Amino acid sequence: MARFGRGNDQIGIGIDIGTSKVAVTIGQIREGLISVLAIGSAPNSGLRRGVIIDSDEVVSSLSAALEDAHRKSGIAIDHAMVSVSGVGTKTLDSKSIVAITSGDEGISAADIDNVTESARAVALPPNYEIIHSFPIIYTIDNQEQSKDPLGMKGTRLEGEILVVGVPTANVNSLVRIINQADIALDGLIFAPLASARAVLNKKQKEQGVILLDIGAGTTSYAVFEEGDLIDTNVLPIGSSHITNDIAIGLKTTLEIAERVKTQYVDANPESASDKIIDLSKIEGSKEEGKFPSSEITTIVDARLKELFAMVRKELKKIKRDAMLPAGAVITGGGAKLKGIVSQAKENLELPAQVGTPSLEVGGAVDKLDDPSYSTSIGLMLQSVEYGPQEGTGGRFRIKIKNVKMEGLANKAKNILRQFLP
Question: DSSP letters along 14-35, please?
Answer without folding.
Answer: EEEE-SSEEEEEEEEEETTEEE
